[in-house]
Amino acid sequence: MSAQKIIIDTDPGQDDAVAILLALASPELDVLGITTVAGNVPLPLTTRNALQVCELAGRPVPVHAGCDRPLKRHLVTAEHVHGKTGLDGIALPDPSTEPAPGHAVDFLIDTLRAEPPRSVTLCPLGPLTNIATALRDAPDIADRVARIVLMGGAYFEVGNITPAAEFNIYVDPEAAEIVFRSGIDVTALPLDVTHKTLMTAPRVAAFRDMGTRAGEAVASWTDFFERFDKEKYGSDGAPLHDPTVIGYLLRPDLFTGRRINVEIETLSDLTRGMTVADWWGVSGRPANATFIGGIDADGFFALLTDRIARL
Known about the structure:
Layout: E1 4-10, H1 14-24, E2 29-36, H2 43-57, E3 63-65, H3 79-82, H4 104-114, E4 120-124, H5 129-137, E5 145-151, H6 167-171, H7 173-180, E6 186-189, H8 191-194, E7 198-199, H9 201-208, H10 213-233, E8 238-239, H11 243-250, E9 255-260, E10 262-264, E11 275-277, E12 289-295, H12 297-308
Parallel strand pairs: 1-2, 1-4, 2-3, 4-5, 5-6, 6-12
Antiparallel strand pairs: 7-8, 9-12, 10-11
């Protein structure tokens, strides 16, 4: 069976970095490219971080820099979680490679037009600005995308940047609205599932005990950002958000969810960026996304540990 073609759209971020490592360590996936967007930190840093992670993995992949701000908003970043570089923790060497030529949006459009229809899955791990801009500038590509599997949103877990909103959707709600209304097959991995994937002490130790640079990086990144989540949630470890997207591609049997209607709040000051997820089917609006709510966390971490150990 041929490898599944994907493009990772990302704003690294320690958990984004782990997701990239998981994808690059998995032969079932053919990573055509990585596109970067402003989110956790500004665009120059997210691009630099993506280059560093690819070099850490030893798997060269073109990295295209994309949008440096949301469609209609001022950029909100998350250095308070991820540190001033976005990848604080282990010290990685400066990247020896440069970003690939061409804007990320152009790369998305050109690649989707060049590849066979519905053969490429888009995997957004940050704000949806690049994806929405590509759909706005080239509406024809909507019919060429196989599906979009993204990390973003919340329902039962409400918000992590405001009382109502998850960070990725909050940063660019207008972009999220475009994506969820695009007609493309969307699967969302919200906080409802990522908050069940906790990097507990034994799980962190499993990465550190690998004795590899990649294993030490995953452990170090987790040690850094878990200080924020453990204090905030009182949990036994930090949620590992973005790798669930790659985990879902590799082992969908580990996840459960529902096909429901999801709308994005763009107007309210109180609930900007809220994913209004009709979990109980009361709105009468047609379903437009698969919203994941459950995960076999032990199975997920077994997969993640096995793949990172291969790097």
